[in-house]
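Re: the request from the purification team.
They wanted to know what the chain is likely to look like in 3D before they choose a buffer screen. I agreed to run a prediction and write the result into the notebook, where they can find it.
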Amino acid sequence: MRVATVAAALALALSVAVAQDRQEKKECCGAVGLLCPKDGKCEGTCREICDKVGETLKAVRAKVIEKMKKECNCECPCTAGTCSTDGCDSCETVKAKVFAPLMKEKVNARFKDWKKEIKHDVKGDDGKSKSVTCTFLKGDLCKACVDDLADASWKKLSELFGEKK
């Protein structure tokens, strides 16, 4: 009986710790551990931009995993952002050498022309090119930026982890 009580108390303590950990992570911005200059504790406009970067990164990772499944019939949890191993070296390598430089480059490019309306030329369903306004960092998720970043990420991942010839 006493063992069951101790086990129940440990289980309760663990579930509270996990809930607190999840709540703390939720308080951090979307670019924590990637680009955030304040370790995820940013506010105001900085927070909005970091959250947009995080939202874009999540969409890019999903797109890269689609490419990975299609081209090599596999999935990498480190690339997908679904790895549950704390301190995983592969996750850190993928973030540091693939996603962080590409996201930083994209953010810096947008800040150079912050007031300017940026357009993307994309092919529509009818196969014709059309010009669409970029909403990266300023509005809804920019599909053209996600596609561009996913292509660039896939290329970098292939160079980094692909077969050497």
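For the purification team: Strands lie at 119-123, 129-133.
Please add any questions underneath this entry.
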